[in-house]
Specification:
Chain lengths: 114, 109
């Protein structure tokens, strides 16, 4: 398994600003993902973070709104741009290795947009 | 139809009870299947992978029926600490992980 940390753990942001969330894994992993979980809901995949290339976004999510970086095998960032109250959610980073496809999650970032 | 559907719950059971959760998926090309548990205000944690032959881990048994596109999780001798939301997860070739809506379990003393 992998140990994953996220920063910040929570933030309260103003409408129109941007927040960058960092995800650090304690070992080299093949796959990194970003999810959103809104209150009382299950997880929705935002994108797959690809090392050294553009992220692969799921339907309904676009790069301009959620730019993602993954400069190496252990680190990724997700930016929530031009935030609105609808972006208030928990954002979760996960990591895993190809072959088993098991995922391990970071503790999440609780974002509130006012 | 949603890609992954689960029993809506919540399930309220007494300690020691046996409880079963069901999950169905719509994509017949799905290849990997998992059960995660998520405690309130925590991140999901992998409970177990689900193999074609079925697998057991202590009090937990997972079954997969590819023909019916159905996955189940059985918990025997429920403990208070089993109270959580159980998420069914389906995956195709390491991409397109889809989480079910979750089934909430409360084990009562």
């Amino acid at each position: 398994s992998a140990v994953i940390s996220q920063k910040p753990s929570r933030d309260i942001c103003q409408r129109g600003t941007s927040l960058t969330i960092q995800c650090q894994v304690d070992s080299q992993v093949t796959m990194m993902f970003w999810y959103r979980q809104q209150p009382g809901q299950s997880l929705t995949l935002i994108a797959t973070a690809n090392q050294g290339s553009e992220a692969t976004y799921e339907s309904g999510f676009v790069i301009d709104k959620f730019p993602i970086s993954r400069p190496n095998l252990t680190f990724s960032t997700l930016t929530v741009s031009n935030m609105s109250p609808e972006d208030s959610s928990i954002y979760l980073c996960s990591a895993g290795t190809s072959g088993s496809y098991e995922q391990y999650f970071g503790p999440g970032t609780r974002l509130t947009v006012t | 139809r949603k890609e992954v559907e689960q029993d809506p719950g919540p399930f309220n059971v007494p300690e020691g009870a046996t409880v079963a959760f069901n999950c169905t998926y719509s994509n017949s090309a799905s290849q990997s299947f998992f059960w995660y548990r998520q405690d309130c205000r925590k991140e999901p944690k992998l409970l177990m992978s689900v193999y074609s032959s079925g697998n057991e881990d202590g009090r937990f048994t997972a079954q997969l029926n590819r023909a019916s596109q159905y996955i189940s999780l059985l918990i025997r001798d429920s403990k208070l600490s089993d109270s959580a939301t159980y998420l069914c997860v389906v995956n195709q070739d390491g991409q397109n992980f889809v989480f079910g809506p979750g089934t909430r379990l409360s084990v009562l003393p």
